[in-house]
Amino acid sequence: xxxxxxxxxxxxxxxxxxxxxxxxxxxxxxxxxxxxxxxxxxxxxxxxxxxxxxxxxxxxxxxxxxxxxxxxxxxxxxxxxxxxxxxxxxxxxxxxxxxxxxxxxxxxxxxxxxxxxxxxxxxxxxxxxxxxxxxxxxxxxxxxxxxxxxxxxxxxxxxxxxxxxxxxxxxxxxxxxxxxxxxxxxxxxxxxxxxxxxxxxxxxxxxxxxxxxx
Length: 214
Known about the structure:
By secondary structure, the chain is of the alpha/beta class. It contains nine helices and six strands, in the order βαααααβαβαβαββα.
């Protein structure tokens, strides 16, 4: 095994939440007078922490989002996730292989701890991720594309950055992993491969990942 730690992004890599959350984000921003398509949301916000939504809207329009924006959005998202969310196809096979091979892994997500846990409980992935394997942008000062979250996760897991592999599906996540000095495999199921070109390697189906890890 080439790596001592595999760090998974959560949304779009472990749980198939990106279509749900970006659909709802686009609708809510449009409702508030900031016309946003699903494609716009994927392009601008996928893989980022919530502060990026606030920052970009303010930069582009000069208007701040409502103080309760995050709470309202998360309430809508959590309700939809509990109805619709599924694990990414093939990801349990990857987790089974890592466990069988004794390779440490964890999750480092731009989402909140609550969002990660809701998604994992709904999909049954909670059996694979104990508390000590879960890291959120809430744990650090800056979210992706800053390297802080990945460096924090590696430090907590006791592995040097150069011995870590990150599995990501967003350009911001790939940028953060590169900045952290880690290899990164870009998952192209939702994101066009060209937008993940900075990744160490690209793959389009989770079933491919186990072979790539050898």
